[in-house]
Amino acid sequence: MTREIPILDSCDVLVCGGGFGGISAALAAVRLGKRVILLEKQYVLGGLGTAGLVTIYLPLCDGVGHQVSFGLAEELLRLSISMGAEEKAHLPLLESWLRSYKPEELFHQDGTPVELVASFPPTGARRMGANPHANGGLLLRDLRTPDFRDYAVDIPSPGAVEAQDMYVLGTYVRDVMKLNMDARNFRIFAPDETASNRLQAVFEVTGRRFLDEQLPGIDDHLDPDGRVMDSMLSEHFCEGFLEGYLLTGRHGFFDSYEAFIRIVDSMFSQHAKWLKMCNELPWRQDIASLNYILASNVWQQDHNGFTHQDPGFLDHVANKKADVVRMYLPPDANCLLSCFDHCIKSRNYVNVIVASKHPRPQWLTMEQAVKHCTQGIGIWDWASNDAGCEPDVVMACCGDTPTLETLAAVSILRRELPELKIRVVNVVDLMKLQPHTEHPHGLTDEEYDGLFTKDKPIIFAYHGYPTLVHELTYRRHNKNLHVRGYKEEGTITTPFDMRVLNDIDRFDLVIDTVRRLPQLGNRGAYLVQKMQDKLVEHRQYIRDNGVDLPEVREWKWDLTPETK
Asked: What is the model's pLDDT at position 89?
């Protein structure tokens, strides 16, 4: 079957778009004697310069003296210049136009509007900014939440059990959703990633918002009244939905793959800037914080590969106003529960949580986790052996995977070099590293030096790009800082090999430590060689077997009393 398409007209040149460029092109073609048709979807010509009142600056040159605009564009620009305000012939026309509005009837001599004009704007709650639906904090009600401590993972000893941090959080979020179902003031926003990020427990009490026809036996947890907004794969929609939801006095969070949250960088920036300005306006009421959970993070993309590896959102957030942004990297499930509960109850912040969704060793009891997250940073005494003396080295870590590899490196060092005094410092609140003069959560120099010392080597394993840690700490006394993190190396490979590719694995961390302790002498040299042999063994093993070394997959924190 063929379809006849009617031909309405013919032309030599068809120009699609009646903006400034399109008009110039069409008129230039007409001057050359061509028959031209100009198509424009808007009701006016001129593009954004007309319909959107956007002032367009069109330069004639490329900045180094070469003219790049000619024809009509050049004519219009030169005509605009010739009719500038400095032209005596033009000023009377401008004055006549402005006086046609009779300003003497609208304003007093001091420039203030007359009473009639002043009476036009609405008053009270009818003012745009005072309208409860435009000032959502007036409508905000606290979320009903269960006690997050009830969802704790039982930890008989550090690293004794494994759990999926995000799955544990999902059970808590499920019950938050359940408790606020009648209030209808809590939603989850995700670009088709709620289950992938291990929050599927929420589907026990609600579904995905979906209004179209459903296919029985195929569609999964679709509900026309669902409280989970993840039926379309669009980070932009999720961000826009959530921001609007918060602005009307309700609560929610956005969970996403870490790499793809970068899609909404500019949207986050605008919201953060808006919050910063709102904090300066006494009449703006506080709204619920904009909360992000980045769960499919850079170290957990062994099946998706390089395209899904980008921790740069943290760098982007860190540059925004300190009184607005907060960043948390909990090392285990109990810490994640504590951080999330704090964030979901906060006001007027942008909170970013980076969490694990794969099985990971669990380190802290709930009591320890609450203390650790409240302080944001601290010494893990059970992993350290420098109590009562000065450490030889500080092993710092921030993020679930860096924490795992740091502790594995510490276990090697303490077995191979038992005389070495090691202090383990874990960071949950990233902004603790910044001076207190720059961020309200920042440590004073005295507090920082108390944790990291003034001159001992610091081997810092960090979740994201190492440069951010250097930027946050460059003013500190201790310049003996060596940071390992993501350095744009990745592919579809084994989980541990991802760490090896970026030099954040336990073997490389041991090598980094020994090389910064020259007092170890020959003992250190032999340990370095042993670790380098392990790296070669690792590469050969994954090439032959497709999985990580058994000692890596089965590793446990099990230091004997003799090594403690």
From this structure: 67
| Number of residues assigned to the chain | 564
516 vs 341: CA distance, rounded Å = 40
Same domain assignment for residues 229 and 307 = yes
Confirm whether 183 is domain-assigned: yes
Domain hosting residue 26, numbered range: 13-82
Three-state secondary-structure class, residue 422: strand
pLDDT of 307 higher than 90: no
Query: Where are the alpha helices (H) located in 302-399, listed in sequence order?
Result: 313-318, 333-344, 366-375
Whole-angstrom Cα Rg for the chain: 31
Instruction: Indicate whether 342 and 204 sit together in one domain.
Output: yes
Full strand arrangement of the beta sheet holding 481-484: 377-379, 422-427, 393-398, 458-462, 481-484
Residue 564 has pLDDT above 50, yes or no: no
CA nearest neighbour of 403 among 420, 371, 378, 366:
378
Element (H, E) at 519: none
Measured at the alpha carbon of residue 15, what is the angle toward residues 13 and 20, in degrees to the nearest 5? 135
Alpha-carbon distance of 40 to 477, in angstroms, equals 63
Give how many domains the chain has, as a whole number. 3
Task: Give the three-state DSSP class for 39.
Answer: strand
At 353, is the pLDDT very low, low, confident or very high (cuts 50, 70, 90)? very high
How far apart, in whole angstroms, are the C-alpha atoms of residue 41 and residue 450? 66
96-108 confidence digits (pLDDT tens): 877 888 888 888 9
Kindly tell me the sign of the dihedral angle through the C-alpha atoms of 168, 170, 171, 176.
Answer: positive
